[in-house]
# Entry
Amino acid sequence: MRDLVKEIGDFIFVEDEPQRCDVIVTVGGSFPQTAEKAAELYKIGFADYILAGGGVSVKTGVFAGVKDKKNIYCGDYRTECDFYVDVLKKNGVPETAIVREDKSGHTRANAEYAAAVLKERGISAEKVILVCKRFHARRCLMFFQAYFPGTEILVVPADIETGDWNITKDNWYASPYGIKRVMGELARCGEQFTETDINNYMR
# Structure
């Protein structure tokens, strides 16, 4: 059983060392830590651009709302992109370095629309840093590899230390919520990755 837990953790929790790249991409969400991590990487000098990705929930049709540090990030955000842009600016990223993508409502669309926006802007994407929640890493990587063929993608997760959301490779199996989130991700990696995604991946 210990081997199985380790194998699941190794699969879901992808993490790379950051390297100089063309662009940092934030995967849509409601936690500021994702954009804060992207800003940190930008200020160190890992990229010249950050793509702030994310629209509204496909389930509700609205932005889900800020889930942490509401005293700092308290704007009237229409989309996840709006929220991330505010976080980036408040953490020292200039407007000129921010690329906006505000149409996607789920992980596959995050990848698909990010690729389209970067192509439209003429921004190279030979190497990309992908910033997301730790337990979301594998699914994000799968979709971004499908829609960024030929791109080297490095996953640099953001730490979210708020309550039940503090889910890591070392503790996910120790709480009912951690098990639910990680096993849910494992299922979605199989259920959501379609024949079209695989064909894109194999190009």
Notes: The CA atoms of residues 57 and 166 lie 22 Å apart.
